[in-house]
Specification:
single chain, 302 residues, mainly alpha, 14 helices
């Protein structure tokens, strides 16, 4: 009796090839995933080395830092001390500048997010004369560099009494943060299904209620991404702060630069001050990283 191809219990050559391909593809996927994870771990470790070194340096005495590198603390953990942070808290210039940074960053971030959200919704879903032309004007402001506006706006602030004040710095950051905010949120809000908004309007929702109850929850990832961008930009800014602040309104970036210029050897104050200045935006980023990644991925898909 002859055996026909494809009879029960017989493995055909095609099935053998498919099994080999499936096994090979699975092996490649496993190796590829493992290699990618290992590479990302190595990159993450190298990225964190400066942060770890700064943290350890801020916990060492000045004489230990001048004698050996920060990695020697692993062989001599007794070098760790919080005396530098105590001196930092006793330094009025650093503590006041840290508070000034908060007073500048938080309002500048909140105002850009709120005004940018309202303007983005208006450009996306509200009809008014010249809407597209106004939006093109906003997009055109994205190409204006900050350096071009420093001197003219400084002169303007000097005439109206805002130069050297915290409010003046906040106003500058809000003005230069809004074009990107409006552009980003308008494009994100425009992807919301029109049927969803029409259904809310049929239920009697006005524009403000529609914005608060429908648009804002759906635009949460994009708004969170914008907030993180704006917070990091304002917190780490030095150029604008150098031009528009005075001794009583300087943020932490300018205060640390002043300390280096005036007292080049006060590393016991500079190290903890620099670490605090760096760790706060890192904490904000890691606290909202899920919303940030969601917003970036949503923007990429759309």
């Amino acid at each position: 009796m002859t055996t026909h191809a494809g009879s029960i219990g017989e493995v055909t050559p095609v099935e053998t090839v498919k099994a080999k391909e499936s096994l090979g593809s699975k092996l490649v996927e496993k190796l590829g995933g493992g290699l990618v994870r290992a590479f990302l771990v190595v990159v993450g470790v190298f990225w964190l080395v400066p942060t770890i070194g700064l943290l350890i340096s801020s916990l060492r005495a000045p004489e230990d830092m001048s004698a050996t590198g920060w990695w020697h603390v692993f062989s001599k953990p007794s070098q760790l001390t919080f005396d530098s942070y105590q001196k930092l808290l006793e330094n009025g210039d650093i503590t006041s500048s840290l508070w000034n940074t908060v007073l500048i960053t938080v309002p500048a971030t909140v105002l850009v997010v709120v005004i940018g959200s309202l303007a983005g919704y208006a450009f996306a879903w509200m009809e008014f004369p010249g809407r597209d032309w106004w939006f093109l004007g906003v997009v055109g402001l994205l190409v204006v560099p900050v350096q071009v506006a420093l001197i003219p706006i400084a002169e303007l602030f000097g005439k109206i009494g805002l130069f050297g004040t915290i409010f003046g710095v906040v106003l500058f950051h809000v003005g230069f943060g809004l074009p990107f905010a409006v552009f980003l949120l308008r494009n994100f809000f425009a992807e919301i299904p029109r049927e969803l908004l029409e259904a809310a309007r049929l239920d009697g929702a006005g524009e403000l209620r529609l914005f608060a109850r429908v648009v804002m929850p759906l635009g949460g990832p994009a708004i969170a991404s914008l907030g993180i961008f704006q917070f990091l930009w304002v917190w780490n800014d030095m150029l604008v702060a150098l031009v528009f602040t005075k001794s009583g309104s300087q943020p932490i970036t300018v205060a640390l630069q002043t300390q280096v210029r005036q007292f080049g050897n006060n590393i016991d104050v500079l190290a903890p001050g620099a670490f605090i200045s760096m760790v706060i935006p890192l904490a904000v980023f890691f606290a909202f990283q899920r919303q940030f990644v969601t917003g970036v991925m949503a923007g990429a898909v759309k």
